[in-house]
Amino acid sequence: MANKKENDIAIKVSHMTKNFKLYSDKPNTLKERLVRGWKNKTEVRTVLKDINLEIKKGETVALIGVNGSGKSTLLKLMTKIIYPNKGTLKTYGKLTSLLELGAGFHPDFTGRENIYFNAAIFGLTRQEIDARLQSIIDFSELGDFIDSPVRTYSSGMYMRLAFSVAINVDAEILLIDEILAVGDQRFQEKCFAKLEELAKSNMTIVIVSHSLDSISKLCNRAIWINNGEVAMDGKCKDVIEEYLRVCG
């Protein structure tokens, strides 16, 4: 039986390491294969090293760091899109994510059809989706484009639809990776305002963003990832100040 502390945890990462194999020196032509032989050299790159962290239910956490530091990989591990080579990562609660534009959408379906498609994947019934449909459409501000195939959407329109669905599927954990960087400034601000509202409702939010001003307002905690390791974990303001001092 889980104790009270375990019941408070949304995400737990223990001694987690993630490696990727990089392939090089693959022969480009048949002649090269015959002369040199096909020797596929592999190099193992460690992206995350022995990560240990706990995120409590209701926390709003920013992952910060320079490009290539391992932030996005950590989010993908949380979604179970990829798996660690060592250690464990456990999530407790219904999870949804906004990691890549267009992920989870069928390009030939209309925006409206994709709302039903996505929400059904997250376990909502037809009746539940019907009840939320207009709220999703209204928040997205897509207007008549909601009945156009999503393959005709701009990146900003994709983001509007994806975000509007994600906040309406009763998720307990929401993961966001830079998707809010696309689209117009006004809608980005609208999204952050909605995230602040969701944070007050005890949703667990983990976000990767280079907008340090926005995450400092939204998040109560920040984790700085540097070269695949946790460089600092603490109050958002303190971590951002140290990150800027070191990385500029």
What would you say this structure looks like, in words?
There is one protein chain. With 248 residues, this protein is an alpha/beta fold. It has a single domain, classed as P-loop containing nucleotide triphosphate hydrolases (Rossmann fold), CATH 3.40.50. It is built from nine helices and nine strands. It has helices at residues 4-7, 30-36, 71-79, 111-121, 126-140, 155-166, 185-200, 212-218, 236-247, and strands at residues 9-24, 41-56, 60-64, 86-91, 95-98, 173-177, 204-208, 221-226, 229-234. The strands form two sheets. The chain has a six-stranded mixed beta sheet with strand order 5-6-7-3-8-9, with helices on both faces. It has a three-stranded antiparallel beta sheet with strand order 2-1-4. The chain is globular, with a radius of gyration of 20 Å. The model has no long low-confidence stretch (mean pLDDT 91).
Summarize the entry for a quick read.
Helices cover 38% and strands 28% of the residues. It has 9 helices and 9 strands. The strands form 2 sheets. The protein has a 6-stranded mixed sheet with strand order 5-6-7-3-8-9, with helices on both faces.
Please give the structural blueprint.
Layout: H1 4-7, E1 9-24, H2 30-36, E2 41-56, E3 60-64, H3 71-79, E4 86-91, E5 95-98, H4 111-121, H5 126-140, H6 155-166, E6 173-177, H7 185-200, E7 204-208, H8 212-218, E8 221-226, E9 229-234, H9 236-247
Parallel strand pairs: 3-7, 3-8, 5-6, 6-7
Antiparallel strand pairs: 1-2, 1-4, 8-9
Helix pairs in contact: 4-5, 5-6
